[in-house]
Design brief:
By secondary structure, the protein is an alpha/beta fold. Helix content is 49%, strand content 8%. The protein contains 23 helices and nine strands. The strands form three sheets. A five-stranded parallel β-sheet has the order 4-5-6-3-7, sandwiched between helices. It has a two-stranded antiparallel sheet with strand order 1-2.
């Protein structure tokens, strides 16, 4: 049985760009392929549509009719989580109601119908270092000119505030399009702001964001922008905290989580019918006796097969580079490699997070990140030690040793390298799902994983790979240098017990010091007066 037989695989290799929306085929595809998780259906889409529905001007609060307040939208999601796809979805439908028919979920379609065709939409990605106000004016002026609206923000040289100029702009727009709103959608906002993090520049740009959101509550203008993290939490911006709070008051954040990403992967790349799910269950249940996590979460393993559930969690935590953009592309590439392979009968056959290190190590762009480059150097040495030392009777341990090292490479890149983030033998056993026919239980497999990890530590002399005694985690050593403690352990482990005793006596005799004359020949026994002195000196050493 091949992997192809157990999943309806649809690759996701494209990165959504606003520029692609000039292609009519891409527009329809982006709407058709959008996957709506429960979070999207119940929270995200209703919130977006409520904020864009300018026909609903009142809300009922405790039985009283009150004016409805409108805000800007901040779409938050790490690279590859689908924030650009989401912004493309609702802006396309807001622009043209014909795209509503391509929405695949009825609940989402009902909400999106409230905004269908009600906007003229301006989308752009920021790739300039100029002031935000200048960029916005240029883009809006060009947009208005194409619509035949006789107004220019750039030519408005009055001393009015930006929000007043924006209101004047909307007055001219609504005069020509009385039944339409204007929707401004901007991507890559955080990267732009981080390039302008000086106090004067940032404050001016934040004032522009505040003004754009303020007129959303006064006109039929709306704004949404996408960022990798909430701008209010970015450490580079904390000197402008007061201004950030003012901006925060005018925007509503919508954060895409890893659960949403898992759902998208499940529905778009890993969709399965009931018969396929049963075949996967029959396959995986052969291994639940080995893995405690699989035993307790078998439905998650079936749903995400052939991806191990922990893949997404570990992927999301990676800090180095911009690897998050690649999550769907990476999995799609991996599936393409294995889709025609036979599912192994003696292994679960899962794609685990350790495999991502191979992608990172082979990606020239990611290796420009200093942390990735440093880890790559260490891994070259570790892999060389594995090749040189896992020979003879240990040769069959080499594949697992490489997987353990790869997993630790991914783990250490989830935090600052100085924190030496790692993985315990228990988590490695669950997350790598490696089966050895010689062992019959999780505890036995964990002991085997522990022994292989210990071998790596021994063969690298603890200089590149080491176990933290405080938390039991194995991790890469990024500082380098000789690990004297491990060298002593290695030397001692290869000594007969009798030799260890002899070395201990020699150490005492050297450290205390003790005269060579003993009370009985051939025995390390000294006369009582000398022993009394020795005991005192030992207590002082301790």
């Amino acid at each position: 049985m091949k992997y192809r037989d157990l999943i309806h695989f649809k690759p996701i290799t494209e990165v959504v760009r606003f520029g692609d929306l000039r292609d009519e085929r891409k527009r329809q595809q982006f709407v058709e392929t959008f996957v709506f998780s429960e979070q999207y259906k119940k929270n995200y889409i209703p919130m977006i549509c409520s904020n864009l529905d300018f026909t609903e001007t009142e809300i009922v609060v405790n039985g009283r009719h009150e004016p409805k307040e409108f805000f800007g939208l901040q779409i938050v999601g790490s690279y590859g989580t689908g924030k650009s796809h989401l912004m493309s979805l609702f802006s396309l439908i807001a622009e043209d109601e014909k795209y509503l028919e391509y929405v695949t979920d009825e609940q989402a379609k009902a909400n999106l119908a409230k905004i269908a065709g009600k906007y003229k939409v301006l989308r752009f990605e920021i790739n300039s270092e100029k002031e935000l106000w200048g960029i916005v004016c240029y883009q809006i002026d060009k947009f208005l000119a194409n619509l035949g609206v006789d107004y220019s923000l750039t030519n408005d040289t009055s001393f009015e505030n930006n929000d007043v100029k924006l209101q004047n702009m909307m007055a001219a727009f609504e005069e020509q399009y009385p039944d339409k709103g204007m929707l401004l959608v901007i991507d890559e906002m955080l990267a732009y702001l981080k390039g302008r993090s000086g106090p004067d520049k940032l404050n001016r740009d934040l004032q522009v964001l505040q003004a754009l959101a303020q007129i959303s509550n006064q006109t039929k203008f709306r704004i949404a922008f996408g960022v990798q993290e909430m701008i209010y939490n970015a450490p580079e911006f904390q000197f402008a905290r007061e201004m950030l709070l003012h901006v925060n008051d005018r925007y509503r954040p919508l954060t895409i989580t890893k659960e949403d990403v898992k759902y998208i992967a499940q529905k778009r790349m890993l969709n399965k019918d009931d018969q396929q799910r049963q075949l996967i269950r029959d396959h995986l249940e052969k291994f639940t006796m080995y893995f405690s996590h699989m035993h307790g979460h078998i439905d998650d393993y079936i749903t995400l097969f052939p991806v191990h559930p922990s893949y997404f969690e570990n992927f999301e935590l990676i800090k180095a580079g911009k690897s998050q953009r690649e999550i769907m592309k990476t999995l799609s590439s991996k599936f393409s490699e294995i889709i025609d392979q036979e599912i192994p009968g003696d292994q679960p056959g899962l794609i685990c997070y350790d495999s991502y290190w191979e992608y990172m190590d082979g990606n020239a762009t990611l290796k420009t990140d200093p942390d990735v480059a440093r880890v790559s150097e260490i891994m070259q040495t570790i892999n060389s030690k594995i090749t040189d030392n896992f020979t003879g009777g240990r040769r069959n341990r080499a594949p697992l040793a490489r997987r353990i090292a790869n997993a630790c490479a991914v783990k250490i890149l989830q935090q600052d390298l100085s924190k030496t983030n790692g993985a315990t033998a228990e988590t490695l056993t669950n997350d790598l799902c490696y089966v050895n026919a010689m062992y019959d239980s999780f505890d036995e497999l964990q002991m085997f994983v522990e022994s292989v990890a210990h071998n790596i530590q021994e063969f690298t002399a603890g200089q590149y790979f080491f176990k933290n005694k405080d938390n039991g985690e194995y991790h890469l050593c990024v500082e380098g240098g000789i690990n004297y403690e491990e060298l002593v352990n290695i030397y001692a482990s290869n000594m007969p017990d009798g030799t260890k005793d002899e070395y201990f006596y020699q150490f005492l005799q050297e450290a205390l010091p003790i005269e060579d004359e003993v009370y009985r020949s051939s025995f390390k026994i000294w006369s009582y007066p000398k022993s009394k002195v020795i005991c005192t000196q030992i207590r002082q050493l301790v």
